[in-house]
Design brief:
Chains A, B: This is 3-isopropylmalate dehydrogenase. The structure is a homodimer. Chain A has 2 domains: 180 residues, Isopropylmalate Dehydrogenase (3-Layer(aba) Sandwich); 140 residues, Isopropylmalate Dehydrogenase, CATH 3.40.718. Helices cover 41% and strands 21% of the residues of chain A. Chain A has 11 helices and 12 strands. In chain A, α1 packs across α9, α1 packs parallel to α11 and α9 packs antiparallel against α10. Bound molecules: 3-isopropylmalic acid (2 copies).
Chain lengths: 346, 346
């Protein structure tokens, strides 16, 4: 394992640049002396689109592809029509770089705000498919804007795409103490995609006799997530269901300010991309109110992915300590970044 | 308004027959002397399918169509492959009878179990589209069962279908004290369907200047539902998103044992169908453990729909009183039915 990291940085829109700055601060603090970190910033997002009309050029893609990993802040701005940046940039990167594993861990830290009563124990990870489902951009509209309009969205699911993410989820489940994997889908309604997912899940499961499995409809999964989140260990699910349940998972386990994610290409043919689950929050951009913890934890996922396991663990410990010590006194984005950087260095 | 009701009763599978019996008990108790109730039971569900292979024959449909409304217990049994009863019977009825408004109220009663901390105030209703979206059965599978399989699911959205349900939601919002309507969708990814929904929502909204509106992505909606459910008044959303968020809504507002629903055809061209949100719960069938409250509240929605407004309100009051008085001592399904029937009669 090389002790150098070539990192592409996409600060993006809204609070993106602020939280990314803290992520880099902590990354620099945690890396050992002998590790070399090179970063290159990419100007992508609303500002560039307004200035040049570019979302992501072939040159951008070629340059991004040369890095070991990508750190992304957030994409999205109210001045840009809904979907333009999301589909033309964020999802484009996930698809181009074949980020078929969208990794979203949820762990309820001590002293964190959960809307749930009692003292639930939450420690699970959602493995969300990242390159298929209703996110493919398949669909269209006929007689647009007339009373006879028909608009469609097509969820595309392939054996190739489903099997590789299901297999990844089994591997992750196998490596965890509880070794439990739950498939979340809606097989009773989406019978074609549902059968492909369920059959693949069952078939691949035969290779992992040590992993306990169960199946849950997505609607029921939302119930368990608030009533009994402790039951989950690893969840594997499709792109859209994963989007929905990971926001809920973030909400019950400390809030979206703490939720990290990785868009991972396990084959390493392309750089993986790490980003907080939260969006660009334009309403608080520039106020110093953004919590950089989600980005900092995304840096931990990045380090883990690149083999810096000890450093990743140090960041998670530092964030845990920081969060546990929070007493409600206000700190700026940058102060939180400083505090966590001090803990990882110390 | 006629003071007679011709009711089709589909007890269905699992706990269906048990909870429906309590629904009918309360319905009989609440109706005034001069109202005539005629019920006819239909044998539909797992047992009939196993015995005859029939799901829903033309004769069934023709007969069901003659009634003023349908009361359904639950459909679904583990002995039947996933999707067969759901799509061949339950969804078939919703589609055949053009139940384009799937009405799902959430109201947190005093003394009810919510997984949420604090004392949230919850009183909203979800207007879920019932005849389109990913529920149309469009889709298929190519090279099924091979490593080259492609399985698709198509969400179909029409201006016709979206406008009528959006309009219905505005009418309901206008009739409520807070007059607030939230559109839930995923316009930043599902751009074709999203644009149709959002444009329709905005255009129809011009006719309802008294209604305050907002828009929320479905992932964010799950966060608000656990962090700030009080913000919701009326929600309008598509078939699949509605399925997911109404289970979550039920979970935070007293549990699925209390959640009622109506599959409504507001034009009255077809009978509307009322059913608890919960399923057939085969694991507790026959044990007397099922809470009939969800079905009894569905009977209240049925009465409201048929113009028996005072009787509907009496049932809601009786259920509220029953739930508020619960002290944890176990009662059977039938005892709860008796207690609520006594309250509405008394
Ligand atoms: C911004 C949006 C396109 C994105 C998604 O739906 O994947 C976001 O919600 C997320 O979860 O990363
Ligand atoms: C049983 C299933 C087909 C149904 C649905 O998805 O609509 C149920 O979950 C519901 O919400 O009524």
């Amino acid at each position: 394992m090389s002790r150098s990291i070539s990192l592409a940085v996409i600060p993006g829109d809204g609070i993106g640049p602020e939280v990314v700055a803290q992520g880099l601060k902590v990354l620099t603090a945690v890396l050992p002396q002998d590790a070399k970190l090179e970063t290159k910033e990419y100007d992508l997002g609303a500002k560039r689109w307004h200035a040049t009309g570019d979302l992501l050029t072939d040159e951008d893609t070629a340059a991004l592809k040369t890095h070991d990993a990508i750190l992304l802040g957030a994409i999205g701005d109210p001045s840009v029509p809904s979907g333009v940046l999301e589909r033309g940039l964020l999802l484009k990167l996930r698809f181009l770089f074949d980020h078929y594993v969208n990794l979203r861990p949820s762990r309820l830290l001590p002293n964190t705000a959960t809307p749930l009563a009692g003292d639930p124990s939450i420690d699970f990870v959602v493995v969300r498919e990242g390159t298929e489902g209703p996110y493919t951009g398949n669909g269209g509209s006929l007689r647009t804007g007339t009373p006879a309009e028909v608009a469609t969205e097509v969820s595309v699911n392939t054996a190739y795409g489903v099997e590789r993410v299901v297999r990844d989820a089994y591997e992750r489940a196998k490596a965890r103490p509880r070794k439990k994997l739950t498939l979340v889908h809606k097989t009773n309604v989406l019978v074609f995609a549902g059968k492909l997912w369920k059959d693949t899940f069952d078939r691949v499961g035969k290779e992992y006799p040590e992993v306990t499995t169960d199946y849950m409809h997505v609607d029921a999964a939302t119930i368990y997530m608030v009533n009994d989140p402790a039951r989950f260990d690893v969840i594997v699910t499709d792109n859209l269901f994963g989007d929905i349940i990971t926001d809920l998972a973030a909400a019950v386990s400390g809030g979206i300010g703490l939720a990290a994610s990785g868009n991972v290409n396990p084959t390493r043919d392309f750089p993986s991309m790490f980003e907080p689950v939260h969006g660009s929050a334009p309403d608080i951009a520039g106020t110093g109110k953004a919590d950089p913890a989600a980005t900092i934890r995304s840096v931990a996922l990045l380090l883990e992915h690149l083999g810096f396991t000890a450093e990743a663990a140090r960041i998670e410990e530092a964030v845990t300590a920081d969060v546990t010590a929070r007493d409600g006194s206000p700190r700026t984005t940058s102060e939180i970044g400083d505090a966590i950087a001090a803990r990882v260095a110390g």
